[in-house]
Amino acid sequence: MRRSLFTRVYKKSTNQQYESATQQSESEFNIPIGLTLKENVENIKNKLGNPSDLIVREITVSNKHKCSILYLSGLADQKLVNDNILKMVQSETSQSEPNTNPSGTSQSEPNANPSGTSQSEPNANPSETSQSHTNSNQSETYQNDTNANSSETSQSEPNTNPSETSQSEPNANPSETNKNNPKSSQSGVTQSDPNLLEMIEQHVIAITDTKKVQTLYEVIDAILSGNAVFLLDGVNTALVMGTTGYETRSIEEPQSEAVVRGPRTGFIESIDTNITLIRRELKDPNLRFDVHEVGRRSKQKVVVCSVAGIVNPDILNEVNRRIKTIDIDAAPDSGFVEQWIEDSFLSPIPQILDTERPDHVTYSVLQGKVAILVDGSPFALIAPVMLGEPLQSLEDYSQRWMIGTLLRLLRFLAIFISLFLPAIYVALTSYHPGMIPTKLAFSIAATREGVPFPSIFEALLMAVTFEILQEAGIRLPKAIGSTIGIVGGIVIGDVAVSAGIVSPAMVIITSLTAIASFTIPNYSLATGLRVLRFGLLGAASILGLYGIILVFIMLCIHIVNLKSMGVPFSSPIAPYFLGNLKNLLIRSPIITLKKRPPYLEPRDINKINDGGKSK
Questions:
Q1: Using the 8-state DSSP alphabet, how is residue 65 labeled?
Q2: What is the pLDDT of residues 66-95, one digit of tens each?
Q3: Measured between alpha carbons, how far is residue 54 from residues 50, 144, 248 in Å?
Q4: Across 192-234, where does the E strand assignment appear?
Q5: Measured CA distances, 427 to 18, 260, 507 (Å)
Q6: pLDDT digits (tens, 9 = 90+) for 584-600
Q7: Could you tell me the pTM of the whole model?
Q8: How far apart are CA 253 and CA 357, in angstroms?
Q9: d(CA 97, CA 63)
Q10: Segment among 174-183, 232-241, 468-477 with least mean pLDDT
Q11: How crowded is the C-beta side of 260, counted as CA atoms within 13 Å?
Q12: Taking the CB of residue 433, how many other CB atoms lie within 10 A of it?
């Protein structure tokens, strides 16, 4: 009781400290963007620790508005920034420069040049006008023509007279413009028109993914996500542009779910690429992706994938609710998310499936399940998961139903061998030798002659040695890993037997157990069975077959009470759904699988593609 109370008090104190630290960190960054460009850039540099990979490109728009483009060189696509942002802004600046420079305006516009205007328009020169008229009263004609031409010229061609042009266009003089601009501040910072940022976003920058932010926290978060930020002097709003383009691994065949017949496409660490792979598999407008952010410091994107109209809203809401409760610094892999949202963290059996295959995710969401993608992880999570599904492979449906059924039954046999065979051997040789046939008992006794250890120690020695070799083979490089396997096989199979440490029968038991465990399609389930195998070995060494039966009963009780996202894990056995047993123990023909699993309570129970037999 004291320990529980101390734990609650310590946990509450820790949470309060963590929340206060988080609020303090957010308050330091959550300050509004100022009007001074230089100050904003310095604040961003200081908050990020003035990193060397932070690129700050300063340019001038329309020869008077200073602006800066900020991004991290390793996270942003620099070609996209150069071609679609920097060059576009510079080209717009070069086009708009003549209109802002008075001298430049007179050179680029022919009508603005007084000399040119006098040569091309005779009426503009009073002397030529007076010579072309031959009437007797030249003075009246000259005055009338002059008045007429001067009035017409002043109305229709205002640019012919430079003096009139300068008077009629007050904005052509920069000094006058600054004097008349009410947005000029006394501190020397010229406030730009907020519409200029809107114009740059709409007509200059060639980036589709843009948004405006107004706090320094949002700016820094965007930069750390690989986006480029456009800051304009005198405007307290920043423009965030989606330029994420860091290097990613190419799409390869899944390493943990190899198939003989089926797609060779696997997920990678980029969540955007993984979403694209799912969309390429499933061209359904009802496909939905709910985006979450996980990690106080990593700010990772977690996406919940489902098909609207099929998935049960209660399951979808429960998954989204559990993801929102995740409160950790970072999630390096989807396994962190899995362990946070699963129903029972004490169970060795996984309640959420992990897969590297986009086709597996597509098939699952069409069944009414929910898939979870985590940025930075090549494994997607599938929930809820039922009994028997970790033993199923999507390749079962690529083969004919009889072949698929045979493969599925072989896997059930393999899981029984990998789980119970060492324990049964220890129980029979230690407590129940009378249950072994006489000839087989004599043969086993002959092989164990000279072995100084009891069978339980012999079994544990072999099991631990196998686990060490398996871990060493996984962690080492592929070229060395195969060598470790050969050396381990020789040591286990030859040297240990020759030395009389283990019996040949135990080598056969260990080999069969190892081979059987490799047939399980899901690696997480195979790892959980390794834990259960040691428990069964301990029970068999103490109570014999009674211990194995007791552990089996406890395992059944645990499975029946286990749930996955609130759905009973033991479905469709308990609760009982007779129609779904044909897709559990065996693989029925495709045309007979007309309905989705009823224990998931999907909105649409009938499958769309049932071969047309349901009509």
A1: E
A2: 899 999 988 898 888 999 888 888 887 666
A3: 7, 70, 20
A4: 210-213, 228-232
A5: 52, 38, 17
A6: 888 888 888 888 998 89
A7: 0.76
A8: 9
A9: 6
A10: 174-183
A11: 6
A12: 12
